[in-house]
Amino acid sequence: MKYSQLVIYYFSGTGNARNAAIWITKVAKEKGLQTQVINIDRFNIVDVPELTEKTLIGFCSPTHGFNLPPIVLKFISKFPKVKNVDAFILNTRGGLKLHKFFLPGLSGVAQLLPALILWLKGFRVVGMQPLDLPSNWLLLHPGLKEKIINSIYERCKVIVYSFAT
């Protein structure tokens, strides 16, 4: 087994990034990994567990203004330099559904800056996954119906489980 430990740091306003982190953790636990899911919404210091080649670090965050939120970028920039530690980035973005078609959200270059920061700190970025969970841009579209939200969530669970395996 390549990894023995998974640590996911997440920031979430609507709960979408938190849910994605939990879904990934479920897959990791099924594979026998030790897991930690850590909310960074009130961090003062970056508390990092012992990092080895068998540790996978994940960052799950919403997209704000076509980038990750400033708190997430600040958190990642405070991470210590490492060698041979793998990391992944998952950003949620506002997806919609029109009849049978799932429409992607917009994330611009949201993953590129954090990937660059992680690379400069010595991480190997082994995965970057955008995830189109329900949009909350209510100024641009009417609120989504529960049936639509559920179908978007079920589709995203499949995507996350595939990404996590």
Structural features, described:
- This protein has 165 residues and is an alpha/beta fold.
- The protein has one domain: Flavodoxin domain (Rossmann fold, 3-Layer(aba) Sandwich).
- The protein has four helices and six strands; from the N terminus they run βαββαββαβα.
- Strands 1, 2, 3, 4, 5 and 6 form a six-stranded mixed beta sheet that branches.
- β4 (85-98) and β5 form a beta hairpin.
- α1 (16-30) crosses α4 (146-164).
- The longest helix is centred in the last third of the chain and has 19 residues, at 146-164.
- The termini are close together.
- The mean pLDDT is 85.
Set down the secondary structure blueprint:
Layout: E1 5-10, H1 16-30, E2 34-39, E3 55-62, H2 70-77, E4 85-98, E5 101-103, H3 112-120, E6 123-134, H4 146-164
Parallel strand pairs: 1-2, 1-3, 3-4, 4-6
Antiparallel strand pairs: 4-5
